[in-house]
Amino acid sequence: MSQQGYVAAPPYSQAQPRMGGYQGGFGPGPAQPMNGHYGGPPQAFTAPPTGMMKPPVSSGAMPPPPSQFSPNMQHNGPQSYPAASAAYGQPLYNSMASQAPPPTQHLTNQMSAMNLGSYGQGPARGPPPQPVAQQPFQMPHAPVMGQPQMPPGPQSPQMSPPQSPSASMPMGGPPMAGPPMAGPPMAGPPMAGMGRPFPGPSPPGPGGFPQPSPGAAVPPGYPQQPGQFGGLIAGPQQGMPGAFPGAPGGLAGPPQKKLDPDSIPSTTQMIEDDRTKHGGQVYTTNIRGQVPPLVTTDFTVQDQGNASPRYMRCTAYSLPTTADLAKQCQVPLATIITPLAALPKNEAPLYLVNHGETGPIRCNRCKAYMCPYMQFTDGGRRYQCSFCNCVNEVPVFYFQHLDHMGRRVDFYERPELSLGSYEFVATLDYCKNNKPPNPPAYIFMIDVSYNNVKSGLVKLICEELKTLLQNLPREDGADASAIKVGFVTYNKILHFYNVKSALAQPQMMVVSDTAEMFVPLQDGFLVSYQESRAVISNLLDQIPDMFADTGESETVFAPVIQAGIEAFKAAQCSGKLFIFHSSMPTAEAPGKLKNRDDKKLVGTDKEKTLFQPQKGVYEQLSKECVAQGCCVDLFLFPSQYVDVATMGDVPARTGGSVYKYSNFQVDVDGEHFLRDLRKDVQKRVGFDAIMRVRTSTGFRATDFFGAIHMNNTTDVEMAAVDCDKAVTVELKHDDALNEEAGALLQCALLYTTIGGQRRLRVHNLSLNCSSQLSELYKSCETDALINFFAKSAYRAILNQPLKSVREILVNQTAHMLACYRKNCASPSAASQLILPDAMKVFPVYMNSLMKTGPLVGSTELSTDDRAHQRLAVMAMGVEETQLLLYPRLIPLHNMDVGAEAPPTPLRCSEERLADAGVFLLENGHAMFLWLGQASPPDLIQNLFNVPSLAHLQAHMSVLPVLDNPLSKKVRGVIGDLLEKRPGSMKLQIVRQKDKPEMLFRQFLVEDKGLHGGASYMDFLCYIHREVRQLLT
């Protein structure tokens, strides 16, 4: 049965001016259609069936293949919403065509009908309005190519209100008055005529417009104006305000009405609905291909044969059976693995299985580990591997009889037979040189150049380490940590410290030859903190005084990492370097860097070089680090450009992290930095790790994204991996999959624990397979999809122009939706945008991704900040990317101070803010407290202990501790968030209309981007037009 989505009335026909730098005009397809792999061979759609009219396509959007869209589309499910999920420029995805269509939500948005040159309000398409979440939402009709387009009317286009009272989506929070779009209404070229949202290589034709279709007169040249992303937008024609070439002059459209923003799919609503459905419940993993609750929902996992979604999440839980289907729908197939994810206190830690000297039981052929999917036969004497179908003998010591069901009698006593995740004790065969590993070591390396000493940073670090070293991570049940510690200070030369417990005073040894780095002492450099506590405390007191009068401002960097590697080699252990560094390494030494920050490259094809690390020394260092199990965590305190792309390269390849505190001041940023340092030192980490992902026949893991190093195509090597680091693994077909057998994944991680024990951690997951595309769309997970897209786009910008990458993103989004509409949705008016239910908010995330620093290409953004964000995202798990791309906006002014739960977040848009309100916004990396200019004085008094906003001092970053219910509640909410997120966030308090408010506004992701980028509503219209283009 088919149901309608929303209706909201006219018009997306006109775009806001300079919308997100969308290039004007329809371009001809770029030379290489952008649906293929980044840098892979171009793959175009096949031509439509004969007899079908084929309008020229807008650049990059290819007409669909005949097979792709069957005329008898069905669409089922309760709601139709817009949704998009495009495989990111990766090679085309195999998809599952399916008849049982997923629930969808239509978004039809009635347009002032732009039916080929007819102007005037078109009748609403689709059935009469129905109750709330089910109203068709009409989108503008995109004119057929080659038709004249409607020039913008004299009035600024505005969105019209819903046609019926029920068209708007129920939202948390009172409805807000005010224009739906942030900023003044804008006039501009008609939406339908917009070209690719991401101008690709400028297509031929004046101003980046496509060449007119044969037979059309070519209009005289138009002056060109630079577009927001560096693409060119055609200038207005003579006597015609902002018209497109070829449009009839002087035709003004009717004034537009406003469109209700509540009528488009809401992320906060979707999160809330999932919480209502699954919150606080037990999720058992005994069903194959089961889609887990969202990452934003609190639930308890009970392992019954598949790994918890905390360890593995997939972009789709039902894979298409063939490569052709996957290629057709372009939904990327991937799994995001966080192998050492932290579990909540109410979930049992993993069982440890010890098979003694024989080690774990494995398939002889494919080496998969014993798991719940193995089939025992022959009375229990043999087992068939479900990954490669090889039949293996069961070792004598492991033999057990089978019950009447063919299951082993000891099924429930053995974790490896009944659970999705478990650990094996690894034998010496799994250790380096067949010797048990030594416990890891942590070396603290402090830059004592002039800036760091002067700012008070050196003193701050030394004071903190005295207490922090007492909290080094330790094995469960151990009295003390087994981790050894060492200390180095450096500027142009390196100082090593002997802190052996027998000494009365620490001893310093200097190495000034940075070209041939060595560690001048073996005994006494890496020590147990417990034993050498007095000497270490003595050293930490002395360091700030020793360098108090330093005038040395030059530093080295590569030799510091080299020294760490040498120390670990000498001690025959793995470990982590904590490097506290402030400036670009300019001293004469290996790894010396030059300033290569060039804003003139932004918007050009050479922009990618800004993200590429400088080759040579650092590449070699990464390899040595990984080989030794040496992870680098870098804490940067720059006051200017330091080339994060290069300095962060070693941390990014060794499973480390880069923390950045620009223009660091101890009193303002000190606490923020210390919270990061504490979390970083106390994290659970695995060292010297190697991971392999095995799959059942028919598909395989082909690409890996993360803070990793790959020496070959299968082994993912990490000098260390912590509880927050995730590896995104792309999956591709190499044969057909079987619907009955399903698809199996096994991730095995070999690592050394913080106690020095070698272990194997195994996670197993079983997925469904289907020849029905609708099954695929039903089982998609938007949060996992956007994690994959973010990582693949951020990797792609190293080798491709930003324009092409953005174009691929939009293309794939449109493709995924067009395929859904064609194959899975019930027939409906072309003016409706129909989204699969599981992807209905995908466009919000995709639009937000395209507005992130690395993908925007604005000269106003610092190159280092863009590089830093790119590196951070590459190692993120699903929860982190979800929050980064859709921040929480929490109203605090009207909350119930007695309630346990924090208030429900609102949509990230300026419209949700109230002049008399106080709002908290956080995305896991930044946190703002926004104060409306009409905030009640008693509210301000209770929070800040000042009579009004005017008395508030600038640059506050912490709330005063006051004894009243509101203050306690707000500090509690902030404290909980800081506790929960992997990194620390510095609280920035901003008043409405103050200058710092601009920073805050760039996190309102549903509005237009500050540095370019469309609003969510505009992006939706744009995608809708692209989808229609693909379907005609």
From TrEMBL:
Highest rank taxon of the organism: Eukaryota
One GO CC term on file: COPII vesicle coat
Ranges of compositional bias, category Pro residues: 149-164, 172-188, 198-213
Domain Zinc finger Sec23/Sec24-type: 360-398
Boundaries of every Sec23/Sec24 beta-sandwich domain copy: 686-770
Xref: InterPro entries: ADF-H/Gelsolin-like_dom_sf, Beta-sandwich_Sec23_24, Gelsolin-like_dom, Gelsolin-like_dom_sf, Sec23/24_helical_dom, Sec23/24_helical_dom_sf, Sec23/24_trunk_dom, SEC23_SEC24_subfamily
Single Gene Ontology MF annotation: zinc ion binding
Region called Disordered, residue ranges: 1-40, 55-77, 114-275
Sec23/Sec24 trunk domain: residues covered: 437-681
Localization per Swiss-Prot or TrEMBL: Cytoplasm, Cytosol; Cytoplasmic vesicle, COPII-coated vesicle membrane; Endoplasmic reticulum membrane
Composition skew (Low complexity), residue ranges: 132-148, 214-227, 234-246
Keywords from the named record: Cytoplasmic vesicle, Protein transport, Transport
Chief location: cytoplasm
Domain Gelsolin-like: 903-972
Sec23/Sec24 helical domain: residues covered: 782-881
Gene Ontology BP terms: cartilage morphogenesis; COPII-coated vesicle cargo loading; embryonic viscerocranium morphogenesis; extracellular matrix constituent secretion; intracellular protein transport
Membrane topology summary: Peripheral membrane protein
Family of this protein: Belongs to the SEC23/SEC24 family. SEC24 subfamily.
Protein name (record): SEC24 homolog D, COPII coat complex component
Source organism per UniProt: Takifugu rubripes (Japanese pufferfish)
Lineage: Eukaryota, Metazoa, Chordata, Craniata, Vertebrata
Name of the gene: sec24d
